[in-house]
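Async update (no meeting this week)

Hi team, since we skipped the sync, here's where things stand on the single-chain job. The sequence we agreed to prioritize is pasted below, unchanged from the tracker. I ran it this morning and attached the output directly underneath so nobody has to dig for it. Comments welcome in thread, and please keep replies under the output.
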Amino acid sequence: MRKLPNETPSNPLDRVPHRKCILTGESLPQSQLVRLALGPDNQVAPDVRAKAPGRGAWIGVDRSALEIAHDKGQLKAALSRAFKTGSLNIAENLAEQVEQGLQRATLDRLGLEARGGTLLSGSEKIQTAARQGDLTMLLHASDAGQDGCGKLDQAWRVGSDREGQDVRGIILPVDREVLSVALGRQNVVHIGITDKRAAGRISHMLNRWCSFIGSNGTDDEVPRKVA
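Output:
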């Protein structure tokens, strides 16, 4: 394979950073993991945006597995090895903190896209964009009606030449009230994304969130709401 400029065998430009989960030992793309940061008071806290200074450790398990590891002392043991100290302050609700952090990061991303003009709300606007082939991603609130979701899903299939295929929007793990607050708009039940790069940014955040809470984003499972 031809090398790109400035590429070396040990550091290809397109290499995706990998990190090892401290609980499973599995090496995964960093985008699929959540960083835990160690504060100056030895307090362990979620760092879902991976920007906090100081030491960090990575986890790639869902909420249920994290809670079990915490209860059995496996999390503290793994963190002690990673941080090279046994003096750690780990909150009992760490798993809840991680979930809330992932939710907040995803909703913040949606808010940024709304302000950047790459996000549509309102069934009529979304349906028009979908039928014109301008839609790259479709999202529904957890309390959206099946009829409304079905109409927009069908419009998206028609506009993207995928009629007859099982193509549906993603059911978000939050309801319309939460989405309305996040976007600063009224009664946000459905969301349409019209930019491929914006859809990629949202997918990155949403996939981590849904993986952690065990939601597949389909009608088969109604995800729980974070308080």
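Quick observations from my side:
Residues 1-14, 219-227 have pLDDT under 50 and may be disordered.
Residues 94-116 form the longest helix (23 residues).
Reply here if anything looks off.
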